[in-house]
Specification:
Layout (H helix, E strand, L loop, with lengths): L1 H28 L11 H15 L2 H19 L1 H5 L8 H25 L17 H4 L1 H20 L5 H14 L1 H21 L1
């Protein structure tokens, strides 16, 4: 089901991009005002010179961080421990859970010290939380919290025996999210092309 949905989204974005290229060419050929063609010399130069900057957005970084955090969370065994109905936890799982929760509390306290107290470092110049440096970094902050909790849990519980296991869990998340990266590239390319043609 998910594979068919992914294929449908990719095909729809490719068709939309092709239709936009043809429509921009036809509208610019008929001298329609304020429409630029993607296959003109200006359009080709724009596409090649802006392709990397089009893709380099915070959304891409957030997608990467969240996929790494999700992979670590899945591989650490923490989700299995918390999912009902669950069997009684053995000693290492209980110790791992306590350690993870303790580190999460310390992490939250650290973030709170940077945001909640008056004149905190991550507040805006007017003392507001939204918008502020913290609001622009909320996804990385959440991703690092998930990474910290899951890696510590996996390490203490024995699920991660070596550093290679930890790194493998991060790569697992990226591999599972690979279709989202393709959709991201195609969507951003279409959206930016649309802006170029009409705006």
């Amino acid at each position: 089901m998910m594979k068919r949905l992914f294929n449908g989204v990719v095909v729809a974005l490719l068709i939309a991009q092709l239709a936009l290229v043809l429509m921009s060419w036809l509208l610019s050929a008929t001298m329609t005002e304020d429409v630029r063609s993607l296959i003109s010399s200006e359009g080709v130069r724009w596409f090649f010179s802006h392709f990397s900057s089009m893709l380099a957005t915070p959304w891409l970084v957030w997608l990467l961080l969240l996929s790494m955090a999700a992979g670590s969370l899945c591989c650490s065994g923490l989700l299995e421990t918390l999912r009902p109905p669950r069997s009684p936890l053995h000693y290492r799982q209980r110790l791992a859970l306590r350690t993870s929760v303790s580190l999460l509390v310390v992490y939250i306290a650290g973030v709170a010290a940077l945001t909640v107290v008056p004149h905190a470092v991550l507040l805006s110049a007017t003392g507001q939380l939204w918008p502020s440096p913290f609001s622009r970094a909320v996804v990385p902050v959440l991703s690092f919290a998930l990474l910290l909790v899951s890696i510590v849990y996996g390490w203490v519980s024995g699920r991660y025996a070596t550093l290679a296991d930890v790194l493998g869990s991060l790569c697992y998340g990226i591999a599972k999210a690979a279709p989202l990266f393709l959709i991201y590239v195609l969507f951003v390319q279409f959206y930016e092309s649309l802006k170029f043609v009409f705006l």
